Protein backbone atom coordinates (compact mmCIF):
# COMPACT_ATOMS: atom_id res chain seq x y z
CA UNK A 1 0.00 0.00 0.00
CA UNK A 2 1.37 3.37 -1.04
CA UNK A 3 2.03 5.70 1.90
CA UNK A 4 0.35 9.09 2.05
CA UNK A 5 2.15 12.29 1.20
CA UNK A 6 3.31 14.24 4.23
CA UNK A 7 3.00 17.86 5.30
CA UNK A 8 4.85 19.35 8.29
CA UNK A 9 2.71 22.00 9.99
CA UNK A 10 4.02 24.59 12.44
CA UNK A 11 1.51 23.73 15.14
CA UNK A 12 0.75 25.55 18.40
CA UNK A 13 -2.14 23.40 19.56
CA UNK A 14 -4.49 26.37 19.59
CA UNK A 15 -7.70 26.95 17.67
CA UNK A 16 -6.21 28.45 14.51
CA UNK A 17 -3.55 25.82 13.85
CA UNK A 18 -5.95 23.02 14.81
CA UNK A 19 -8.32 24.30 12.14
CA UNK A 20 -5.44 24.49 9.68
CA UNK A 21 -4.45 20.93 10.53
CA UNK A 22 -7.93 19.62 9.78
CA UNK A 23 -8.17 21.74 6.62
CA UNK A 24 -4.88 20.33 5.34
CA UNK A 25 -6.10 16.79 5.94
CA UNK A 26 -9.28 17.47 3.99
CA UNK A 27 -7.78 19.37 1.09
CA UNK A 28 -4.51 17.56 0.45
CA UNK A 29 -5.26 13.94 1.35
CA UNK A 30 -2.00 13.98 3.25
CA UNK A 31 -0.62 12.92 6.59
CA UNK A 32 0.01 16.01 8.67
CA UNK A 33 2.96 16.01 11.05
CA UNK A 34 2.42 18.45 13.93
CA UNK A 35 5.63 20.32 14.69
CA UNK A 36 6.09 22.68 17.64
CA UNK A 37 9.29 24.61 18.33
CA UNK A 38 9.74 25.42 22.00
CA UNK A 39 11.44 28.81 21.96
CA UNK A 40 10.28 29.70 25.45
CA UNK A 41 6.67 30.61 24.69
CA UNK A 42 3.93 29.90 27.19
CA UNK A 43 2.75 26.45 26.19
CA UNK A 44 0.93 23.37 27.44
CA UNK A 45 2.64 20.31 25.95
CA UNK A 46 -0.12 17.95 27.06
CA UNK A 47 -2.72 20.14 25.38
CA UNK A 48 -0.71 20.28 22.16
CA UNK A 49 -0.34 16.50 22.08
CA UNK A 50 -3.96 15.79 23.01
CA UNK A 51 -5.41 18.26 20.49
CA UNK A 52 -3.25 16.82 17.71
CA UNK A 53 -4.16 13.25 18.61
CA UNK A 54 -7.88 14.07 18.52
CA UNK A 55 -7.35 15.13 14.91
CA UNK A 56 -5.70 11.83 14.07
CA UNK A 57 -2.08 12.98 14.03
CA UNK A 58 0.43 10.19 14.52
CA UNK A 59 3.66 12.19 14.55
CA UNK A 60 3.69 15.01 17.09
CA UNK A 61 7.09 16.65 17.51
CA UNK A 62 7.98 19.23 20.17
CA UNK A 63 11.61 20.37 20.05
CA UNK A 64 13.25 22.34 22.83
CA UNK A 65 15.20 25.08 21.04
CA UNK A 66 15.47 27.60 23.87
CA UNK A 67 19.26 27.57 24.30
CA UNK A 68 19.86 27.52 20.53
CA UNK A 69 17.40 30.39 20.15
CA UNK A 70 19.17 32.60 22.67
CA UNK A 71 22.76 31.64 21.82
CA UNK A 72 22.61 31.61 18.01
CA UNK A 73 19.85 34.13 17.29
CA UNK A 74 19.24 36.52 20.21
CA UNK A 75 22.90 36.99 21.18
CA UNK A 76 24.13 37.83 17.65
CA UNK A 77 21.29 40.34 17.40
CA UNK A 78 22.21 41.89 20.76
CA UNK A 79 25.81 42.20 19.55
CA UNK A 80 24.41 44.28 16.71
CA UNK A 81 22.30 46.44 19.07
CA UNK A 82 19.45 45.87 16.64
CA UNK A 83 16.44 48.16 16.99
CA UNK A 84 13.94 48.30 14.15
CA UNK A 85 12.90 51.91 13.51
CA UNK A 86 14.92 52.85 16.57
CA UNK A 87 12.54 51.16 19.01
CA UNK A 88 11.58 47.54 18.36
CA UNK A 89 13.87 44.82 19.74
CA UNK A 90 12.69 42.34 17.06
CA UNK A 91 11.31 39.73 19.42
CA UNK A 92 8.96 38.04 16.97
CA UNK A 93 11.23 38.51 13.96
CA UNK A 94 14.22 36.70 15.42
CA UNK A 95 12.35 33.51 16.34
CA UNK A 96 10.88 32.79 12.90
CA UNK A 97 14.14 31.88 11.08
CA UNK A 98 15.01 29.25 13.69
CA UNK A 99 11.52 27.74 13.60
CA UNK A 100 11.59 27.63 9.80
CA UNK A 101 15.03 26.01 9.79
CA UNK A 102 14.05 23.26 12.21
CA UNK A 103 10.70 22.71 10.51
CA UNK A 104 12.46 22.08 7.21
CA UNK A 105 14.84 19.70 8.97
CA UNK A 106 11.83 17.69 10.15
CA UNK A 107 10.30 17.82 6.67
CA UNK A 108 13.47 16.36 5.16
CA UNK A 109 13.65 13.69 7.84
CA UNK A 110 10.11 12.49 7.06
CA UNK A 111 10.43 13.17 3.32
CA UNK A 112 7.48 15.56 3.42
CA UNK A 113 6.56 17.27 0.18
CA UNK A 114 5.34 20.45 1.90
CA UNK A 115 5.49 22.65 4.98
CA UNK A 116 2.71 24.86 6.30
CA UNK A 117 2.28 27.72 8.76
CA UNK A 118 -0.59 29.64 10.32
CA UNK A 119 0.52 33.20 9.59
CA UNK A 120 -2.16 35.54 8.32
CA UNK A 121 -2.12 37.16 4.90
CA UNK A 122 -1.50 40.66 6.27
CA UNK A 123 1.39 39.92 8.61
CA UNK A 124 5.16 39.84 8.37
CA UNK A 125 5.54 36.31 9.68
CA UNK A 126 4.45 34.65 6.43
CA UNK A 127 7.45 36.30 4.76
CA UNK A 128 9.86 35.36 7.55
CA UNK A 129 8.77 31.73 7.62
CA UNK A 130 8.78 31.28 3.88
CA UNK A 131 12.14 32.92 3.23
CA UNK A 132 13.53 30.53 5.84
CA UNK A 133 11.87 27.54 4.18
CA UNK A 134 13.21 28.43 0.76
CA UNK A 135 16.73 29.03 2.03
CA UNK A 136 17.02 25.47 3.33
CA UNK A 137 14.71 23.78 0.82
CA UNK A 138 14.38 25.87 -2.36
CA UNK A 139 12.02 23.44 -4.04
CA UNK A 140 9.75 22.59 -1.13
CA UNK A 141 6.03 23.36 -1.44
CA UNK A 142 4.76 25.96 1.02
CA UNK A 143 1.10 25.91 1.99
CA UNK A 144 -0.21 29.15 3.51
CA UNK A 145 -3.91 28.47 4.28
CA UNK A 146 -4.76 32.07 5.12
CA UNK A 147 -3.88 33.04 1.54
CA UNK A 148 -5.84 30.13 0.03
CA UNK A 149 -8.99 29.20 1.90
CA UNK A 150 -12.33 30.97 1.72
CA UNK A 151 -12.65 31.58 5.46
CA UNK A 152 -12.26 35.30 5.96
CA UNK A 153 -13.34 35.97 9.54
CA UNK A 154 -13.20 34.70 13.07
CA UNK A 155 -16.83 33.61 12.84
CA UNK A 156 -15.99 31.51 9.76
CA UNK A 157 -13.30 29.72 11.73
CA UNK A 158 -15.63 29.14 14.67
CA UNK A 159 -18.24 27.56 12.37
CA UNK A 160 -15.59 25.33 10.79
CA UNK A 161 -14.35 24.28 14.22
CA UNK A 162 -17.85 23.46 15.44
CA UNK A 163 -18.56 21.46 12.29
CA UNK A 164 -15.40 19.40 12.77
CA UNK A 165 -15.70 19.11 16.57
CA UNK A 166 -12.51 21.05 17.20
CA UNK A 167 -12.46 22.36 20.80
CA UNK A 168 -13.06 26.10 20.98
CA UNK A 169 -11.58 27.91 23.99
CA UNK A 170 -14.18 30.00 25.80
CA UNK A 171 -12.28 33.21 25.23
CA UNK A 172 -12.34 32.53 21.49
CA UNK A 173 -16.13 32.21 21.20
CA UNK A 174 -16.44 35.87 20.38
CA UNK A 175 -13.85 38.20 18.93
CA UNK A 176 -10.66 37.85 20.96
CA UNK A 177 -9.47 41.23 22.26
CA UNK A 178 -5.81 40.82 21.35
CA UNK A 179 -3.43 38.75 19.25
CA UNK A 180 -0.46 37.58 21.31
CA UNK A 181 2.90 36.11 20.31
CA UNK A 182 5.55 35.19 22.81
CA UNK A 183 8.89 33.49 23.23
CA UNK A 184 11.71 33.62 25.75
CA UNK A 185 12.84 36.99 24.41
CA UNK A 186 9.55 38.87 24.25
CA UNK A 187 5.76 39.12 24.25
CA UNK A 188 3.89 41.10 21.60
CA UNK A 189 0.26 42.15 21.80
CA UNK A 190 -1.68 43.50 18.81
CA UNK A 191 -5.19 43.98 17.53
CA UNK A 192 -8.63 45.19 18.56
CA UNK A 193 -8.37 47.97 21.16
CA UNK A 194 -4.76 48.64 20.14
CA UNK A 195 -5.57 49.11 16.46
CA UNK A 196 -6.61 52.71 17.04
CA UNK A 197 -3.40 54.54 17.99
CA UNK A 198 -5.34 57.09 20.05
CA UNK A 199 -6.30 54.37 22.55
CA UNK A 200 -4.10 53.98 25.58
CA UNK A 201 -2.86 50.42 26.07
CA UNK A 202 -4.80 48.91 28.99
CA UNK A 203 -2.69 47.65 31.85
CA UNK A 204 -4.16 44.16 31.82
CA UNK A 205 -2.59 43.29 28.46
CA UNK A 206 0.92 43.29 29.93
CA UNK A 207 2.03 39.77 30.75
CA UNK A 208 5.65 39.85 31.86
CA UNK A 209 6.17 43.37 33.21
CA UNK A 210 4.41 45.25 35.97
CA UNK A 211 3.76 48.97 35.65
CA UNK A 212 6.63 51.21 36.80
CA UNK A 213 4.23 52.81 39.29
CA UNK A 214 3.75 49.45 41.02
CA UNK A 215 7.39 48.42 40.87
CA UNK A 216 9.36 48.14 44.15
CA UNK A 217 10.28 51.37 45.91
CA UNK A 218 13.84 50.13 46.33
CA UNK A 219 16.20 49.63 43.36
CA UNK A 220 17.51 46.25 42.26
CA UNK A 221 21.05 45.61 41.08
CA UNK A 222 22.36 43.02 38.65
CA UNK A 223 25.79 42.39 37.14
CA UNK A 224 25.95 40.87 33.66
CA UNK A 225 29.22 39.19 32.73
CA UNK A 226 30.47 39.13 29.13
CA UNK A 227 32.95 36.96 27.25
CA UNK A 228 33.75 37.46 23.56
CA UNK A 229 30.82 39.83 23.21
CA UNK A 230 28.17 37.51 24.64
CA UNK A 231 26.59 37.34 28.10
CA UNK A 232 28.06 34.40 30.00
CA UNK A 233 26.82 34.86 33.55
CA UNK A 234 24.91 36.87 36.11
CA UNK A 235 26.57 38.26 39.24
CA UNK A 236 29.68 36.23 38.43
CA UNK A 237 27.84 32.93 38.15
CA UNK A 238 27.96 31.15 34.79
CA UNK A 239 24.63 30.05 33.38
CA UNK A 240 23.14 28.72 30.15
CA UNK A 241 21.83 31.24 27.59
CA UNK A 242 18.19 30.32 28.20
CA UNK A 243 18.48 30.41 31.99
CA UNK A 244 20.35 33.70 31.83
CA UNK A 245 17.64 35.37 29.77
CA UNK A 246 14.90 33.84 31.93
CA UNK A 247 16.52 35.28 35.07
CA UNK A 248 16.88 38.73 33.50
CA UNK A 249 13.26 38.63 32.33
CA UNK A 250 12.08 38.06 35.87
CA UNK A 251 14.30 40.74 37.35
CA UNK A 252 13.51 43.40 34.77
CA UNK A 253 9.81 42.51 34.65
CA UNK A 254 9.27 43.05 38.35
CA UNK A 255 10.96 46.47 38.01
CA UNK A 256 8.66 47.59 35.20
CA UNK A 257 11.39 47.51 32.53
CA UNK A 258 11.05 46.54 28.88
CA UNK A 259 7.76 48.01 27.64
CA UNK A 260 7.42 49.54 24.18
CA UNK A 261 4.28 50.87 22.49
CA UNK A 262 4.90 51.60 18.82
CA UNK A 263 3.42 52.02 15.39
CA UNK A 264 5.67 50.17 12.98
CA UNK A 265 5.96 49.93 9.22
CA UNK A 266 5.43 46.33 8.19
CA UNK A 267 7.49 44.86 5.36
CA UNK A 268 4.38 44.27 3.26
CA UNK A 269 3.39 47.94 3.42
CA UNK A 270 0.91 48.21 6.29
CA UNK A 271 1.34 50.28 9.43
CA UNK A 272 0.49 48.42 12.62
CA UNK A 273 0.41 49.31 16.29
CA UNK A 274 1.66 46.87 18.89
CA UNK A 275 2.77 46.67 22.48
CA UNK A 276 5.99 44.75 23.10
CA UNK A 277 7.54 43.51 26.32
CA UNK A 278 11.23 42.62 26.18
CA UNK A 279 12.43 42.93 29.78
CA UNK A 280 15.59 40.82 29.79
CA UNK A 281 16.51 41.86 26.27
CA UNK A 282 16.36 45.52 27.28
CA UNK A 283 18.87 44.86 30.05
CA UNK A 284 21.15 42.98 27.66
CA UNK A 285 21.08 45.81 25.13
CA UNK A 286 22.01 48.45 27.71
CA UNK A 287 24.69 46.28 29.27
CA UNK A 288 26.25 45.30 25.95
CA UNK A 289 26.55 48.90 24.80
CA UNK A 290 28.10 49.74 28.15
CA UNK A 291 30.74 47.00 28.01
CA UNK A 292 31.62 47.91 24.43
CA UNK A 293 32.13 51.53 25.47
CA UNK A 294 35.17 50.51 27.52
CA UNK A 295 36.49 47.69 25.32
CA UNK A 296 36.16 48.78 21.67
CA UNK A 297 37.79 51.59 19.76
CA UNK A 298 35.83 54.50 18.30
CA UNK A 299 36.14 53.40 14.66
CA UNK A 300 34.77 49.91 15.36
CA UNK A 301 31.87 51.22 17.47
CA UNK A 302 30.83 53.85 14.95
CA UNK A 303 31.01 51.39 12.08
CA UNK A 304 28.67 49.09 13.99
CA UNK A 305 26.27 51.95 14.67
CA UNK A 306 26.32 52.82 10.98
CA UNK A 307 25.16 49.40 9.81
CA UNK A 308 22.64 48.80 12.61
CA UNK A 309 19.54 50.27 10.91
CA UNK A 310 20.00 48.11 7.82
CA UNK A 311 20.89 45.07 9.94
CA UNK A 312 17.70 45.50 11.98
CA UNK A 313 15.62 45.99 8.85
CA UNK A 314 16.96 42.77 7.34
CA UNK A 315 15.97 40.82 10.45
CA UNK A 316 12.54 42.44 10.55
CA UNK A 317 11.93 41.65 6.88
CA UNK A 318 12.90 37.99 7.25
CA UNK A 319 16.38 38.08 5.70
CA UNK A 320 18.22 36.42 8.58
CA UNK A 321 19.71 33.87 6.21
CA UNK A 322 20.62 36.36 3.49
CA UNK A 323 24.14 37.08 2.25
CA UNK A 324 23.73 40.71 3.25
CA UNK A 325 22.85 39.85 6.86
CA UNK A 326 25.81 37.46 7.05
CA UNK A 327 28.05 40.21 5.73
CA UNK A 328 26.81 42.75 8.26
CA UNK A 329 27.17 40.21 11.05
CA UNK A 330 30.87 39.97 10.21
CA UNK A 331 31.12 43.74 10.54
CA UNK A 332 29.27 43.62 13.86
CA UNK A 333 31.39 40.78 15.21
CA UNK A 334 34.73 42.33 14.27
CA UNK A 335 36.79 42.52 17.46
CA UNK A 336 34.05 40.89 19.56
CA UNK A 337 36.88 38.90 21.19
CA UNK A 338 37.85 42.15 22.92
CA UNK A 339 34.44 42.59 24.53
CA UNK A 340 35.04 41.03 27.94
CA UNK A 341 34.16 42.15 31.43
CA UNK A 342 31.06 42.98 33.42
CA UNK A 343 28.44 45.68 33.73
CA UNK A 344 26.44 46.39 36.87
CA UNK A 345 22.96 47.82 36.29
CA UNK A 346 20.63 49.63 38.65
CA UNK A 347 16.95 48.92 37.99
CA UNK A 348 14.30 51.22 39.38
CA UNK A 349 10.69 51.79 38.34
CA UNK A 350 11.11 51.29 34.61
CA UNK A 351 14.55 52.86 34.42
CA UNK A 352 18.00 51.39 33.85
CA UNK A 353 21.12 53.13 35.12
CA UNK A 354 24.67 52.01 34.40
CA UNK A 355 26.14 51.56 37.87
CA UNK A 356 29.63 50.41 36.90
CA UNK A 357 31.75 48.82 34.16
CA UNK A 358 34.70 46.50 34.76
CA UNK A 359 37.15 45.15 32.22
CA UNK A 360 40.83 44.30 31.79
CA UNK A 361 40.77 45.98 28.38
CA UNK A 362 43.14 48.87 27.81
CA UNK A 363 40.86 50.61 25.31
CA UNK A 364 39.85 53.06 28.03
CA UNK A 365 42.84 54.93 29.46
CA UNK A 366 42.38 56.65 32.79
CA UNK A 367 45.72 58.36 32.33
CA UNK A 368 44.64 60.02 29.10
CA UNK A 369 41.25 61.22 30.35
CA UNK A 370 42.47 62.37 33.76
CA UNK A 371 42.08 66.07 34.50
CA UNK A 372 45.38 65.88 36.33
CA UNK A 373 48.41 66.93 34.32
CA UNK A 374 50.12 63.99 32.61
CA UNK A 375 52.42 63.25 29.73
CA UNK A 376 50.29 60.64 27.99
CA UNK A 377 48.25 63.14 25.98
CA UNK A 378 49.92 65.91 23.98
CA UNK A 379 47.57 68.90 24.09
CA UNK A 380 49.72 70.85 21.64
CA UNK A 381 48.45 68.55 18.88
CA UNK A 382 44.86 69.70 19.42
CA UNK A 383 45.35 73.05 17.69
CA UNK A 384 46.74 71.33 14.59
CA UNK A 385 43.80 68.92 14.74
CA UNK A 386 41.28 71.79 14.77
CA UNK A 387 43.08 73.67 11.99
CA UNK A 388 42.95 70.56 9.80
CA UNK A 389 39.22 70.04 10.31
CA UNK A 390 38.20 73.70 9.97
CA UNK A 391 39.16 73.43 6.28
CA UNK A 392 36.27 71.02 5.84
CA UNK A 393 33.78 73.69 6.81
CA UNK A 394 34.28 75.47 3.47
Give the name of the CATH superfamily of the largest domain. Answer: HUPs
How many individual domains? 2
Quickly give the CATH architecture of the largest domain.
Answer: 3-Layer(aba) Sandwich
Give me the number of helical elements: 12
Number of strands: 14
Structural class: alpha/beta
For this structure, the CATH topology of the largest domain is Rossmann fold
The level 1 CATH classification of the largest domain is: Alpha Beta
| Biggest sheet descriptor | 5 strands, parallel
Secondary-structure element order, N to C: EHEHEHHEHEHEEEEEHEEHHHEEHH
How large is the share of residues in beta strands?
15-25%
Q: Taking Cα atoms only, what radius of gyration do you get, to the nearest Å? A: 24 Å
**Global geometry:** elongated
Strand arrangement in the largest pleated sheet: 3-2-1-4-5
**Helix proportion:** 25-40%
* Amino-to-carboxy terminus distance: 83 Å
What's the SSE blueprint?
Layout: E1 5-10, H1 15-28, E2 30-38, H2 45-54, E3 60-64, H3 66-79, H4 91-109, E4 114-116, H5 125-136, E5 141-143, H6 154-163, E6 179-182, E7 187-190, E8 220-227, E9 230-234, E10 237-238, H7 241-253, E11 259-265, E12 271-277, H8 279-293, H9 298-317, H10 323-332, E13 341-348, E14 351-358, H11 366-369, H12 380-390
Parallel strand pairs: 1-2, 1-4, 2-3, 4-5
Antiparallel strand pairs: 6-7, 7-12, 8-9, 8-13, 9-10, 11-12, 13-14
Helix pairs in contact: 3-7, 4-5, 7-8, 9-10
Amino acid sequence: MKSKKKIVLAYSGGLDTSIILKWLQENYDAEVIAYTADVGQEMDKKKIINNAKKLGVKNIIINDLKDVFVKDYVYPMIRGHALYEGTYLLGTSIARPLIAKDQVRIAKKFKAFAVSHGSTGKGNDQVRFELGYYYFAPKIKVIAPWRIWTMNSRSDLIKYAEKNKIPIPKDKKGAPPFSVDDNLFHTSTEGKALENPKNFAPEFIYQRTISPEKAPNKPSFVTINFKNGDPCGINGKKTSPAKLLEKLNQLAGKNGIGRVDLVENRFIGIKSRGVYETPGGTLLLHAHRAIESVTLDKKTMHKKDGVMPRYAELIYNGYWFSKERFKLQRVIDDKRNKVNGSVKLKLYKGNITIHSRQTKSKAYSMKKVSFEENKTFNKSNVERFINFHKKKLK
